[in-house]
Design a protein that fits this description.
CATH topology of the largest domain: Rossmann fold
Helix content: 25-40%
Largest sheet: 7 strands, mixed
Mean pLDDT: 95
Oligomer: single chain
CATH class of the largest domain: Alpha Beta
Length: about 290
Amino acid sequence: MKDINIAYFGGEPIGVPVLNELEKAGIIPSLILCNPDRPVGRKQVLTPPPVKQWAIEDDIETYQPESIKDDMFKEHMMKMQFDLFIVVAYNKIMPKWLIDLPTHGTINVHPSLLPLLRGASPIRTSILEDMREQCGVTIMQMDEKMDHGPILAQEALKISTDQWPMHGNELDTSLSKLGGKLLAQTVPAYISGEIIPTEQFHDAATYCGRLDRSMGELILDPNNLPAGNEAHQTLLKIRAFEGFPGTFFIHEGKRIKITAAHIDTNKLQIDKIIPEGKQEMDFEKYFS
């Protein structure tokens, strides 16, 4: 695939793992587009996004437009001749002229079995909605509508009942690796014309929005944790919101963040917490 000129539009959390799988297959983009460097941490140190860090290590040219809607961006992209664009969690709405610019158009790795879970948070929503058997990835040909284009390839992720509900970060990693491997198999066949795109069954589409900090609050009594289905639904939230927005409850006016939990004998067990103003500690130690 060295003769194929590919631009990769990548973001988090799955942009880098997909790149890793492409590299293993010998498919290396000639240009990587990603978000601009941002201030990070308490000291607000200007830090490149992980996709850019990956590109620097592999000596690949990067482009970090703040906007893809201005004339400067369009002029820059129109100067170059690409065979294919690959989009992975880029989180910017791509105009039709950009989607259609490469010889073979633009394809996308979407971490759901489309048309299920079109939108911004398919991985974490699949946990939240208890969709163990519907987790998977889709390689699709992009059009101007969100997650709407024809399907090139799909693969479900096999998850056993004892693995569920998975931690959000773990499912991020599993789906990104699966997506990267499927993408690496799909690109050569797509370029050579061996794959016939299949239109999605749009009537079956479901949607998911962006995660919001307000979603993370749980109504819990630490001395009487939920059991049965309520325990399961609560654990789904804890696992789905791992990292962001996180889950917490209020106890005696203080915010208690939950960092680890499981279910034992049909009852929710909280393992680790971060009480307001303190370091992470055992749940039992704080409430003993």
